[in-house]
Amino acid sequence: MASLALITAIAILPILVSYAAPTLPPPSSNVDANFSSIQLPIGPKMTAPFGKYVGVTAAKQGNIGGSGGYAAAQVLCNGVSAGSHVCSAKEIINSYEYNIALPTGKAWVNNGPPAYVSDVSNDCNGWSSNNNNDNPTSFSVYGSIWNFDKKQSLMATCGRSLPFACCSY
Predict the structure, then answer these.
(1) Partner of 87 at 20 to 30 A CA spacing, among 15, 41, 53, 166?
(2) Contacts of 117 by beta carbon, 8 Å cutoff, 6+ apart
(3) Nearest Cα residue to 156 out of 107, 114, 91, 98
(4) Which domains does the chain have, with CATH numbers?
(5) Is the backbone peptide bond immediately before 103 cis, with ω within 30 degrees of 0?
(6) Which helix (H) or strand (E) holds 54?
């Protein structure tokens, strides 16, 4: 029995000795002291909560400039509020949770994935298609919209002319 205790002590001792209390990130780190935000080398600061609603763009179809895609959608949102981006459904829900005033009507939101080719939502092929085929037996692409009046996300064919919902961190 004593030999078992000795073997256990020998096996556990290095683990106990090597344990070190957590330390703060180094001063030059891109992580803040309480680990609530990260500054990436390129792009906006990422914070613990998702972005929140800041406004809507002018109405656009799912094709916002051919190959412009997500980058073109972000440019539209930057015209509404500097540094903003197209909202995700989660960010709209966050906005309700933070009691941020939201508009009425509907707006496009990012939901991806853009390369998924099927009769499901793929952000209008990454905001590059305005295919408006409502025939359920034929191929179409869809984007996600947020219905502010009903507080729900829906899919819509990409030929609709709707604003983009914009969010910021």
Answers:
(1) 41
(2) 141
(3) 107
(4) 44-168 (3.10.100)
(5) no
(6) strand 52-56
Residues 145 and 161: their CA atoms lie apart, in Å, by 11
Name residue 105's amino acid.
G
Look at residues 58, 121, 54 and name the one whose alpha carbon lies nearest to residue 85.
54
- Report the distance separating Cα 108 and Cα 127, nearest Å: 10
Contact residues for 140 (Cβ-Cβ < 8 A; gap 6+):
119, 131, 132, 133, 134, 157, 158
Taking the whole predicted model, whether its pTM rises above 0.85 is answered as no
